[in-house]
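Exercise: predict the fold of this chain.
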Amino acid sequence: MTLIIVGLSIYTGIFWDNITFVSAMGNALYNNGVLNWLSISNQIDPGHPPTLATLLAFFWKLLGKSLWISHLVILPFVYGLLLQLYNFVHHIVNHKRLSLFAFLLVLADPTLLAQLVTVNPEAIQLFFFFLSLNAVLNNNKTLKVIGLVGLSLVLYRGMMLGFGIFLIDILQHSYYHKQTLKSFLNKQNILVYILSSIPALIYILWRLVMKGWLISNPHQPWGNALDYSSESGFLWNFGRNIGMLVHRYIDFGRVSVIIFIIIVLIWFRNKISDKIKLLLFMAISSVVAIIITSLFINNPMGHRYFIPSYLLLSLTAFVLIEENISKVKTKSVLYAFLLISLISGNFFIYPDKISQGWDASLAHLPYWELRESAINYLDDNDIKINHTETFFPNNTSIDAVELNGDERTFLDFSGQEKYVLYSNVFNIKDSEYKTLKIEYDTLKIFKKRGVKVLILEKK
């Protein structure tokens, strides 16, 4: 499985928000000192711990800066995640052959697969999450500390997932093992969570002292997450975020998993086992802090924010099939339906004018080949990269995407230059799409599996 992931990753460049987490912050540390976090300027600082950037900068210094080296740095965490995920599934299913089928269904989630083939902090965060979760299930306090410390040093969302682990630990102790809450709050458990929280507290204090802010970047390069013009504006944004949250859970084929769980829970409501109740609690509590935060901020929520919950729900669906469906043929049909539904999510391509989470499935993979062909076309026809406009996430240097030292930089679209590089991967505004349709002709188009990259020339 790891070899397949490596094969899919070879040509996958730095994508979406990871241009900040990998290229921008990584280059700052590579050029100014691996541990010189203050060299990360506010213009490129998202506020999160620069753990991935530090790790990459170190290995770039040691082995050379390249896309391939960056993928190799992530690979141990990918392997570790797969191992911890399988161990978790096997703990729940507790049957060797069935656990393999359950693991395959869980692994088939498109948003998880997308994180495994790109250079990003999500794979690292997920590794530490399932390491922590397995430590809770196996009552291994040492691994629990290691997992929680790792979570706290990857992203702020990792700290929130750590709170989810705490809630799961309480439920595991009080509900599943029928112990009192008072017995959970013993010296050992208190010490585990105090030790685990120290690195996060140190980082937060360091930021406040050295930078003066945590997540509200004073330059607001990504907008103000808490900027509401009025009470009605807040309520409208809150309602929109609820809709977005629902969409994230049902997107990319997950709708079949969600509907199946709801139907079975209603149909067999009097026969729901403690194991199912525990899995559902894990699915909710693991990301409850992320959900609450996401509902109140004025920024789009990514599909990847809720991956632990997606995986736990897929496992819940598998256990529901095993516990509540008696006929083997029916079990096989339902399992195949859910698996195919999730796999098919990697082939969903929305119409151009509908935004898609391109970093949340494998649908983006053809883009890298097409992008390379488009850049070669520009070079062959003497069209200057520095005078070609484009859109996020391509509105940066070639090096920021490919880590190849090519500092030629595309311009952000303004309608002033003669040439534009456009792809349906870019999720542009309706007004920009209309401008391209009216004011530009297609000079060259590259297509593959629903993904397209166009070179446009101004009329």
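Check your answer against the key: The mean pLDDT is 93.
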